[in-house]
Structures are given as structure tokens and as C-alpha cells.
Amino acid sequence: xxxxxxxxxxxxxxxxxxxxxxxxxxxxxxxxxxxxxxxxxxxxxxxxxxxxxxxxxxxxxxxxxxxxxxxxxxxxxxx
Length: 79
Description:
Residues 13-67 form the HTH cro/C1-type domain. The protein is mainly α. It has helices at 13-19, 24-31, 35-42, 50-59, 64-67, and strands spanning 8-11, 68-71. It has a single domain, classed as lambda repressor-like DNA-binding domains (434 Repressor (Amino-terminal Domain)). A two-stranded antiparallel ribbon has the order 1-2. Helix 2 packs across helix 3 (35-42).
């Protein structure tokens, strides 16, 4: 059974995309995913693979940590 630590990944994909004046479809085509993937990622309902996260960061020419932020949950005393 998997333990839920409550960790999450937030992102600034929407902000970077809007600043670049791109549609979700345009960004999706540039990084090799569907428009739906970009949509759910921007809504916070999908955590991308590391490969996709790096592709997006590379496309915007920024460090992956500029777009994606790890937020540690409550691990209690177990970790």
C-alpha cells in the first residue's frame, strides 16, 4: 500500500505560456504532447514526467525549477 505524504508539484506553465503569447495547442505541439495535457497541467490536475518538465523548461529557456516547484507535504516523523 502506497503512503500518501501529501507532496505536490506546482507549476507556472500558464504564466510562461501567456507571456510567450502562445495557445495551449501551440505549446503542446512544441513539447510533443496533447493540448489536453497542457490544459490539465495548468489546472494543477497533472504532474508531468521529468522528461516533459525538462522539455517545457528547455523550450522556455529557463531552469526547470523556475517553472516547477516541489512542495513537501506533512511526512510526520516517518521520514
